Amino acid sequence: MLETNPGATRPRPSLGDAVRLAAWAYTPFQRLAARDLYGLLATRAFTANGLYLNLGYWKTARTIDEACEALATLVAEAAAMGPDDDVVDVGFGFADQDILWMERFAPRHITGLNVTPVQVRLARQRVQRRGLAEHITLIEGSATAMPLPDACCDIVTAVECAFHFHTREDFLAEAFRVLRPGGRLVLADVIRAAPEPDGWRQRVQDFNWNQFAQKFAVPAANADQRAPYTAKLRAAGFETVDVTPIGEHVFPGWHRALGHDRALFARLPLAGRLPYRLLLNFDARTVYGAFDYVLASARKPTQKGVLNGAA
């Protein structure tokens, strides 16, 4: 369990930041890189406990706190995370999942990379307060140019952030580089849904994806559907690739929670509440029909496998 009342220590956004967020939300002129967007959002997290920023995995969860922890747990279990593993977690947010993984799965070490300075600074403080600074190292650094040596880890993870990376393909190359032979990659990721057969729904899909890509700094190269996404993992050198859709356990639960959990809705940035209030008039399929949420896993071949393949 993380802080029971993190709101008491959350810095309040300045008036200038609030104005920039409103301009970002309501005008087509204000575009923000992911680093700047998350810097403006600061500690406007979704959960009551801790500072999670993912949409959650709602298969059995009943609250946003349970759902966010469930998604982090799903990623760790898919990676078979354990005491012999050195983990690199890219886009760690405020390190909630890293703290959970260290306390629940006890990997040997976690190195986190994040491009947003305020998140790195506050996450380091939180890790220090938990007495985990010797086990979790948090670095300001890019997913596509990792300041890490070759073959330095057993697992690479990215929880709901790889769609931002410029580009996802470059990130996969870096993940392959830093993994040891036999190492595992596990991503919880948002990709583009297959087009609807109905023309009207397809136009809605296109509009929603383009709005999402513009507002959330998603490069055009990352508009992958499931088959191209799988192909990119294989092209990067990975084997035993699996891309499993889990959106049915993500989007409807998140949408339902926003409609019923007033505290969750109030934790959204003010600039985001009006659009979401309008979206709650539609069902989840319409609102999230442009998106496919996947759990992707893959393995770097062992050295023997690479040699055999070359032979």
CATH classification class = Alpha Beta
CATH architecture: 3-Layer(aba) Sandwich
Average pLDDT: 90
Assign a percent range to the helix content: 40-55%
Main sheet properties: 7 strands, mixed
Q: Structural class of the secondary elements? A: alpha/beta
Q: What strand order characterises the main sheet? A: 3-2-1-4-5-7-6
Q: CATH homologous superfamily, by name?
A: Vaccinia Virus protein VP39
Per the CATH scheme, the topology name is Rossmann fold
What shape does the CA trace take? Answer: globular
Domain module count: 1
Radius of gyration: 19 Å
Q: How many helical stretches?
A: 13
Report how far apart the termini are: 50 Å
**Order of helix and strand elements from N to C terminus:** HHHEHEHEEHEHHEHHHHEH
Instruction: Count all strands and give the number.
Output: 7
Flag low-confidence runs: 4-9, 305-311
What percent strand? 15-25%
